[in-house]
Amino acid sequence: MSKLLKKSVKLALVQLAAGSDKSANLSRARSKVLEATSNGANIVVLPECFNSPYGTKYFPKYAETLLPSPPTKEQSPSFHALSEMAKESKSYLVGGSIPEYWAETKKYYNTSLTFDPNGKLLATHRKVHLFDIDIPGKISFHESEVLSPGNKLTLIDLPEYGRIAVAICYDIRFPELAMIAARKDAFLLLYPGAFNMTTGKLHWELQARARAMDNQVYVGLCSPARDMQADYNAWGHSMVVDPMAEVVVEADEKEGTVYAELTGEKIEETRKGIPIYGQRRFDVYPDVSAGKVKYEE
Ligand SMILES: O=C(O)CCC(=O)C(=O)O
Predict the structure, then answer these.
(1) Is residue 287 part of a domain?
(2) Residue 296 belongs to a domain
């Protein structure tokens, strides 16, 4: 039996076609989550901003209040819908992300909620690295115009399986986060994300495979489906990469769900074949050894 992943687990990434109608997005998500578990999925993932269009101008309009937790249904319809979906489908549900509003500080966050199969909230991740980029003639995007960053790494223990890490989209570009999660024994790194037509083509698969290769873990990226009528055109191509950095399954750009069976044996086999875990030279690079990251169990 693997130390990291106690038994094999079926992962589903729901590449949802989200539009501007929040309640329609929630009910569409529900039917896709139920479909995924009827196909045997144990962990189901939704995309970044699955209940709204993606864009800074949309965040305030769609934002919900999550604290103090649990929020009321009026404060956060998405919290309650996700909790119900997890319970109804009896799955671990990584609820993509939603825009969140803190009334006290008047701040907004890009926030991911994960629920257990009883509908209980297990973890909240607030996007740590905000998506602020400028590629002349291609894309200019500044989440920090509206959002504030979260400040912790999110590790989640699933008792039957093991530990996973959840982060959001641009967070994948920071290998430090993935490295610390893997060193703290995560078997799977999950990133609800919405790359675009410029960086999607260049870096989506590369980032997923790099994080998997560096850390010899599974990586799952879950995008919204591409909508060429929307202001922001998501890349799509939700994918699962295995610890050997091979793409196990990949969606195209349309709505759909992709599945992968994750096994502890694959992790063990990879680490045995290429034993970097025992070969690190922290005497040569002591300042990158684990332990400096703010982390709450
Ligand atoms: O890193 C990228 O290129 C895209 C990131 C992104 O779209 C996001 O963080 O929402």
Answers:
(1) no
(2) no
Probe residue for ligand 1, chosen from 52, 109, 199, 206 as the CB with the greatest number of ligand atoms within 8 Å: 199
Identify the CATH number of the domain in which residue 164 sits.
Answer: 3.60.110.10
Q: Kindly state if the Cβ of 101 falls inside 6 Å of ligand 1.
A: no
Please report whether residue 70 resides in a domain: yes
**Residue 295 DSSP class:** B
In this predicted complex, what is the ipTM? 0.97
| Residue 297 pLDDT | 44
- Name the pTM for this structure: 0.96
The CA distance from 254 to 238, in Å, is 10
Q: Catalytic site residue 266? A: no
Per-residue H/E/C for 253-293: CCCEEEEEEECHHHHHHHHHHCCHHHCCCCCCCHHHCCCCC
Q: How far is CA 81 from CA 17, 29, 71, 128, in A?
A: 17, 9, 12, 25
Active site residue 222: no
DSSP state string for 53-92: --STTTHHHH-B---SSSPPTTT-HHHHHHHHHHHHHTSE
Query: Looking at the domain assignment, is residue 56 inside a domain?
Result: yes
Tell me which residue range forms the domain holding 43.
Answer: 9-274
Domain count of the chain? 1
- The low-confidence residues of the chain, meaning pLDDT below 70, are 1, 288-297
